[in-house]
Write a structure and sequence with these properties.
Layout: H1 5-17, H2 22-28, H3 36-48, E1 52-58, E2 67-73, H4 75-101
Antiparallel strand pairs: 1-2
Helix pairs in contact: 1-4
Length: 112
């Protein structure tokens, strides 16, 4: 199974905003457009990257090795989320700036 950065971002943001109990978190992790195995495997990757605290709930068949269910964010997970939010804010500001100033990026000739 390939690593999906969009799914990783969604999982981290769900964990950050989730309720305090394991059951609430598990219910909120039912991400549409992704299977249980995909979500569980990406939680495993986040656990291995020391971004979340998680529990091993077993294997998910032939396509991946382990499925993990998250418990909470670790400090590195909080830092990762802050970087995502900052980058998204910057991109949004730049898009608005370009839109507001009617800059046509394709017509700008950049020379060194």
């Amino acid at each position: 199974m390939k690593r999906n950065e969009d799914l990783i971002r969604k999982i981290l943001l769900i964990i950050e905003g989730a309720g305090k109990t394991f059951e609430e978190l598990r219910d909120q992790l039912k991400v549409t457009d992704y299977t249980y195995e995909q979500v569980g495997y990406h939680c495993y990757l986040l656990y291995k990257d020391s971004l979340i605290e998680a529990v091993d709930v077993g294997s998910c068949g032939d396509n991946c090795t382990q499925v993990y269910t998250p418990l909470s964010l670790l400090p590195a997970g909080h830092e990762y989320i802050e970087r995502i939010k900052t980058d998204r804010k910057w991109i949004k500001k730049m898009k608005n700036f370009i839109k507001d100033t009617n800059i046509n990026i394709l017509s700008i000739n950049i020379t060194s």
